[in-house]
Design brief:
The structure holds two protein chains of two kinds.
Chain A lengths: L1 E9 L5 H17 L3 E17 L2 E13 L3 H12 L3 E9 L1 H12 L4 H9 L4 H9 L4 H20 L3 H9 L1
Chain B lengths: L3 H5 L15 H5 L9 H4 L12 H4 L3 H16 L12
Classes of the chains: A alpha+beta, B mainly alpha.
């Protein structure tokens, strides 16, 4: 069984019901072709980084599904391409880490690396506890524990160092 | 007269030293880079939306390639811009 993930952007001009029905048509389309839907993630209305079809926002949907082979994808992509309501789409094959990542994200666990790290080194316990609270951006928070110790050491050596170190980080 | 040992501490010995760069993916065991997570990917692109080189981010080759793929995917989905000014 292979795991795939299809993300698409639906035209925001449509009404809420139309957007939902668009998403559900592709859900049923995948199911009809023998795929099992693992999860449908509604990312909601988001601002686009650049205009697509003269529109500056779009409704993001992300479907994770598993199938025996990739035969269903060609047909799904064709209908996505023909659909005027779909502004953009992307289908990717998930590797085992991707499957695990999505699973962890759904369950509220940040990702596999958190477990692995706490197993590996116990003295990292305090920094790890911080990212556990902030689910959306665990990696961003993780950077801080690394940075802080250096700044702590710097003033001890010489006070002059502190501004120099901070400017280098930028 | 100042001997060689004294001169050594007239200037801060750590000023010129660079912090050792490391691959955060290896260090923290991150195996999958999500193309939907724009906040995370912003760390690997510059203000113009270009990918930062390994020289600067310290990523290992394996993960730099994965980062590049993730950034390109998110550009396609308009999560990150292809070209930008003052992105950060």
């Amino acid at each position: 069984m292979n795991h795939y993930e299809v993300t698409f952007i639906i035209d925001p001009v449509l009404s809420g019901d139309e957007i939902k029905s668009t998403a559900s048509t592709y859900e049923t389309l995948l199911k009809d072709q023998g795929c099992t839907i693992v999860h449908v993630n509604e990312l909601g209305l988001k601002q686009l980084a650049y205009p697509i079809n003269k529109k500056s926002s779009g409704v993001y949907y992300c479907m994770e599904f598993s199938a025996a082979n990739g035969a269903a994808i060609a047909k799904t992509e064709l209908s996505l391409r023909r659909d005027e309501r779909i502004m953009r789409f992307l289908t990717i094959k998930l590797d085992k880490y991707g499957v695990k990542y999505n699973e962890d994200r759904r369950n509220g666990v940040i990702s596999a690396y958190k477990k692995k790290e706490s197993k590996k080194k116990t003295f990292d316990g305090a920094p790890v506890a911080g990212p556990a609270v902030a689910a959306p951006a665990p990696e961003v928070v993780k950077e801080e524990p690394k940075v802080v110790p250096v700044e702590v050491i710097a003033p001890v050596v010489a006070e002059v160092v502190a501004p120099v170190v901070s400017s280098e980080e930028e | 007269m100042a001997s060689r040992d004294d001169i050594k501490f007239l200037s801060n010995p750590t000023i010129g030293q660079q912090r050792k760069k490391y691959c955060r993916f290896k260090k923290y065991g991150i195996k999958y880079i999500d193309y939907k997570d724009s906040e995370f990917l912003l760390q690997f692109i510059n203000e113009q939306g270009k990918l930062l080189p390994r020289r600067i981010t310290g990523n290992s080759l394996k993960y730099q390639k994965l980062v590049a793929v993730a950034v390109k995917r998110s550009r396609h989905l308009a999560i990150l811009p292809y070209v930008a000014d003052l992105l950060k």
